[in-house]
Amino acid sequence: MRCDQTLAWQALQVHADKFKGFDLRSAFADDADRAADLSQSAPHVFADLSKNHIDRATEALLLGLAQQTGLTQHRDAMFRGEPINNTEGRAVMHWLLRQPSSSASDPAALQTVQADPPTVRADSPTVRAELVEALSQVHTTLDAMLAYAEQIRADAQITDVVNIGIGGSDLGPQTAVLALQDFVLPGKRFHFVSNVDGHELAAVLKDLRPENTLFLIASKTFTTLETMTNARSALAWFKAQGGSDVARHFAALTTNVSAAAEFGIRTTFGFWDWVGGRYSMWSAIGMPIAIAIGASGFKDLLAGAHARDQHFQSAPLAKNLPVRLGLLDVWYRNFMGYTSRSIAPYHSALRRVPAYLQQLEMESNGKRVDRNGNALPYGTSPVLWGEPGTNGQHAYFQMLHQGTDVVPLEFIAVKKPTHRLKDHHELLLANAIAQAQALMLGQADNGGHKHFTGNRPSTFFLLDELTPASLGALIALQEHRVFVSGAVWSINSFDQWGVELGKVLARDIHARIVSGDASGLDASTAALLARVR
Ligand code: F6P
Hints:
- The chain is α/β, with parallel strands linked by helices.
- Helix content is 47%, strand content 11%.
- It has 20 helices and eleven strands.
- The protein has helices spanning 7-18, 24-30, 34-37, 56-68, 71-79, 102-105, 125-154, 171-179, 198-205, 225-240, 246-249, 257-263, 287-314, 321-335, 353-365, 397-402, 424-441, 468-488, 500-515, 523-532, and strands spanning 39-42, 45-48, 160-164, 189-193, 213-218, 250-254, 267-270, 340-346, 383-386, 409-414, 458-463.
- A six-stranded mixed sheet has the order 1-2-11-10-8-9, with helices on both faces. A five-stranded parallel sheet has the order 4-3-5-6-7, sandwiched between helices.
- Mean pLDDT is 95; it is low at 112-122.
- The structure holds 6-O-phosphono-beta-D-fructofuranose (F6P).
- Residues 166-169, 219-221, 224, 227, 277-278, 363, 496, 499 line the site of 6-O-phosphono-beta-D-fructofuranose.
- 6-O-phosphono-beta-D-fructofuranose binds at residues 166-169, 219-221, 224, 227, 277-278, 363, 496, 499.
């Protein structure tokens, strides 16, 4: 049932009305167990949700909403490999990329029976056989990919790896390689070129030599304008610089193996249409990560994500972290009127995480229609944005503390540093905790400029260490959280039709820039065209 037609939705509306006077400070004063009850440890991540505008009744009502909208059935359909990406007729199985190969010989392990609430399990032998077959292909490809990654790692002549890809074919690998910089093999440099803006590729190429460079052309479709333009220019540069062994210096990561071959690339690592672009870092798209941190590091990344998959599939909903987070997102968006969420990683290696999460959330849930194409009467994806702390504190945190809008903030901190510089890490963590505290406590000043209203919500994620496994678990947590809110909103979180119109119009405008033909254009577009020519 659509969320706004459920009894739980009505009950949440009444609850939200009563909730208007909610104050975090009194909530803590009145309830000694609040911090413990509203926080939890889940694989690799501790999450403190207690500084949010919720109480136990809110969470109970939200769980009712999850049940009445069929969240667990939708989740189970994903894990059964059903085509829940209905507008493209595709299954959604990035989780299968993280399944250990041992589950292929034990088909039952491919599906975990969910305990809460009990769901009917479709024991279709055909479906299971397909999953077993898919998993075996996943592991054959993974083995080939990791063997190649190890070969490149051992190849001292290759000093520079250039990933050419955009969106999901860029953000995942880039975020992970940066995040795991302490695990990266010395002697290899990684570059990420995404934009069609030639300044980006030119700036990278100027420091490279063809004999020392490996280009990875990462594109699920192998048709994306930016990636194809950059790939052609990279190949032209390679040849102009005297490079000849394309097979050794170019590899493609794609589902469109024939297009890669047509392009002239013979070394190709494939994946499947059931892996969405923004969910693809676990596939061959993760090649830069595998080269950077090695086969065993990549396996750890997958294992961390797999632990999260199991948690999402089997933890009771009340203690299921992605479920709690996704429901919190629905509560904030639809009942509290908060339209944005800010992400503050208190770790400089996590500096691309906000951009990564932006695509994950906004491309998945930035939809105005339900799965059947009917307009939705309620808000969906919030605006996601952010920068690492403490930098943000000296930039836009002012607005978070004293602005007119309430913006829930999410801290991501790591307990153990990997450097030995005295004082830094304690200061970093102190700032993260103090910001969460300041947002909540505020400061009285008779309504003057130094007045902080306080009662501003935040969530605090803490990892013990930043490792491939903890990063995998953190990212999979966010994937499943987006799944949860999208499912409650009846959205297909796995298509992205909203990016298509701009692509079509760009082709038309490009032709007009070349020809000068402005016929039929509106006055503003025609004038801009004339100015850029
Ligand atoms: O245009 C958006 C998008 O389709 C993203 O969903 C995707 O991650 C990106 O482009 C890149 O697509 P591809 O991997 O096919 O080049």
